[in-house]
């Protein structure tokens, strides 16, 4: 059974001005339920993550400043909104949902987190609406519990996974791959194990060709025993922050290409949703829902 981490707190504790793009966290499961793609049994609500596991990835002082709501104002501005306790709890639950998803992926081949993809959070900083890096936390959890020896993180969000790259800069057991807009946030990039920086207005055929060739090559080279996939839909031509030119159909084909390769290789995968900032919320939700539909078609 496909298992999907979802909690109502994912959507609600955000300040005014940030709520529109966050509506998707409620609307994605609602749409999947409405269409009969999933049932309520597919959804699970994660609990809070323990501090020891957070500290395998994030600096102790940084985490305590988040927890105690004492992060300096300058660092809060870098994140993009003022701290409150619900926001921190949201991040902690998202990270736990991604870890729980890893266990479900071992059992079922794949699992999802409706939220997550908080790839701009580094060891001791938050940035771009990301405070705790859910997939990095989960990768370190797998390593520290001897559940995986070789991990591949595939980040196809339009923005570079700079926090993920920094966290694993000196960790040979985790290979980080980010394909993103060259002229997009973050403007100070970190160094992933593999970065492919795309120029503005790259469209369907070029994008899909690169994905098809690169992902297969990485699977063959790295031979991972676990994969994290960040499936941002801010690659759409309609995205107001994206600068690429993909159609909704090509975004779906992207997900089919990568998930089919994971399935064929027999490698479990955890999927976090990443960004999406099209002006019409329907475009965001439809594109994200396509990822779930592809997974259902391939795995179940």
From TrEMBL:
Residues 22-289 form the Histone deacetylase domain. It holds the Pfam family Hist_deacetyl. PANTHER family: HISTONE DEACETYLASE 12 (PTHR10625:SF19), HISTONE DEACETYLASE HDAC1-RELATED (PTHR10625). The keyword Cell membrane does not apply. GO terms for biological process: epigenetic regulation of gene expression. Belongs to the histone deacetylase family. It comes from the Bacteria. Keywords: Hydrolase. GO terms for molecular function: histone deacetylase activity; hydrolase activity. It comes from Mucilaginibacter robiniae. The lineage of its organism: Bacteria, Pseudomonadati, Bacteroidota, Sphingobacteriia, Sphingobacteriales. This is Histone deacetylase.
């Amino acid at each position: 059974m496909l298992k999907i981490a979802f909690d109502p707190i994912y959507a609600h504790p955000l300040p005014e001005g940030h709520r529109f793009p966050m509506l998707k966290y409620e609307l994605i499961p609602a749409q999947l339920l409405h269409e009969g793609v999933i049932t309520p049994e597919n959804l699970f609500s994660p609990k809070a993550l323990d501090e020891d596991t957070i500290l395998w990835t994030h600096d102790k002082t940084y985490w305590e400043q988040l927890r105690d709501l004492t992060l300096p104002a300058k660092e809060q501005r870098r994140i993009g909104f003022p701290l409150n306790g619900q926001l921190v709890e949201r991040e902690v639950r998202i990270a736990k949902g991604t870890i729980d998803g890893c266990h479900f992926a071992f059992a079922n081949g794949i699992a999802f987190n409706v939220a997550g993809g908080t790839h701009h959070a580094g060891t001791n900083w938050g940035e771009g609406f990301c405070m705790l890096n859910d997939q990095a936390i989960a990768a370190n959890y797998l390593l520290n519990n001897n559940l995986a020896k070789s991990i591949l993180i595939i980040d196809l969000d339009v923005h570079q996974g700079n926090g993920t790259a920094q966290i694993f800069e000196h960790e040979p057991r985790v290979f980080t791959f980010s394909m993103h807009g060259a002229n997009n946030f973050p403007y100070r990039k970190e160094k992933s194990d593999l970065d492919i920086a795309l120029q503005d207005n790259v469209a369907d055929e070029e994008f899909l060709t690169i994905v098809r060739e690169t992902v297969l090559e990485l699977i063959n080279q790295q031979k991972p025993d676990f994969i994290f996939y960040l499936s941002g839909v801010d690659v759409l031509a309609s995205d107001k922050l994206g600068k690429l030119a993909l159609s909704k159909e090509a975004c779906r084909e992207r997900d089919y290409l990568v998930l089919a390769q994971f399935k064929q290789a027999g490698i479990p995968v955890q999927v976090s949703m990443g960004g999406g900032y099209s002006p019409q919320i329907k475009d965001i939700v439809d594109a994200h829902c396509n990822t779930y539909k592809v997974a259902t078609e391939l795995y179940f």
